[in-house]
C-alpha cells in the first residue's frame, strides 16, 4: 500500500517575500519533515502557473531554480526519498490532464471563481488570459494526478480545492473510479492543524497584505533583498501618530505588523514580544530593533542559500521528476483509457 499523498506548490512568479516564507514555506517544510514517514510529500514548483498573469519570461528559468534552492536553504531535507521536489512542466501529464478536464468543466463554473474575478479585475482586457481563467483546472490536475488527499490551502484557494473535488467526483461518476477525491476543506484544516490566519502586511500600506507581485515592492521584503535594503524598508515602514508601541491591528496596523514580524523572526508568540516593547514611544528605536533582526535573518538565510550549488538542486529535481512522471503517467493513462484516447486495458492482455 502506498502512503497517502500531501501536495503543495508555491508559484514562482517573482522572488518570494517574507509572508510566503513564514506563512507558507516554513510551515510546509516543518510539515514535510514531520510527516514524511507516513506520507508521500509532493512539493512542486508550479512553473506553468507562473505566467497566468504577465511576467518577465527572461527571468523565469532562474526564478524556478532560485525557489527550489530557497526551499533547501530554509531547511527542506534533500535526502528524504518520501519528499519530492519537482517542476510541474517537467511532468507533461499536468498539461495533458488539464486539457481533458477542461472539456468536462463548465464555462459558468469557472466564471464563478472569485480569484479570477479579483485578478482579472486588476488587469486590462488584453492581459486577461484564458490561462488565468482556467488555472483552477490545471490546479485540479496537479492534485488528481498523484491521488493527493491533503493539500494545504489558504482562504484564497478553497474554492479551487472544492472544484478539484467536484471534477474528480464528476469524472468518477461518469467513468468509474478514476481519481482519489481530495479531502474537503474542513478536513484539510483539521489535518494541517496550523493556524491559517497569518497575514504579514505591506510595510508601506499596512492595511494591505504583503504580496510578491506588488508593483513597486517598496513595502515588500523579498528573501533575496540585500539585508541593508530590507533594513531600510523596515525603517521607513508606515506607522501612526500615537507614539506608543501596542499590538492593536485595527488601530495601529503598521506597528502591529512590525510586532508580528519581530515575533516571527524570533520564533516567539506575538503577545510576548508585544509586552516586551509595550508603550515604547520612539518608533525609530523600535523599528531599529526590527530592522536589525530582519538583517540578521536575511544574512543567515542567504548564507545557507549559498551553501547549495545548482547541481545539487537540479539532481534532486530530476530524481523527483523521474518518480513523478511514473506516477502521473499511470493516472493519465487511466484517464486516457476511460475517455477513449487509448485502448482499454483488456487489449494489453490479449
Ligand atoms: P501573488 O502576489 O503572486 O499573489 P503572494 O505573495 O500573495 O503572491 P501567493 O503565491 O498568493 O503569494 O501565496 C503563496 C503562499 O504564501 C500562500 O500559502 C499564502 O497564504 C502565503 N502568503 C502570501 N502572502 C502572505 C502574507 N503576506 N502573509 C502570510 N502568508 C502569506
Ligand atoms: Mg496571492
UniProtKB/TrEMBL annotation:
Query: InterPro entries annotated for this entry?
Result: aa-tRNA-synth_Ic (IPR002305), Rossmann-like_a/b/a_fold (IPR014729), Trp-tRNA-ligase (IPR002306), Trp-tRNA_synthetase (IPR050203)
Q: Which domain of life is it from?
A: Bacteria
Q: Which UniProt keywords apply?
A: Aminoacyl-tRNA synthetase, ATP-binding, Ligase, Nucleotide-binding, Protein biosynthesis
The biological processes this protein is annotated with in GO are:
tryptophanyl-tRNA aminoacylation
Molecular function in Gene Ontology: ATP binding; tryptophan-tRNA ligase activity
Q: Which GO terms describe its cellular component?
A: cytosol
Pfam families (UniProt xref)? tRNA-synt_1b
Q: EC number(s) in its UniProt entry?
A: 6.1.1.2
Q: Which PANTHER family match?
A: TRYPTOPHAN--TRNA LIGASE, MITOCHONDRIAL
- Belongs to which family? Belongs to the class-I aminoacyl-tRNA synthetase family.
Q: What is the recorded name of this protein?
A: Tryptophan--tRNA ligase
Organism the protein comes from: Candidatus Mycosynbacter amalyticus
Name of the gene encoding the protein in the UniProt record = trpS
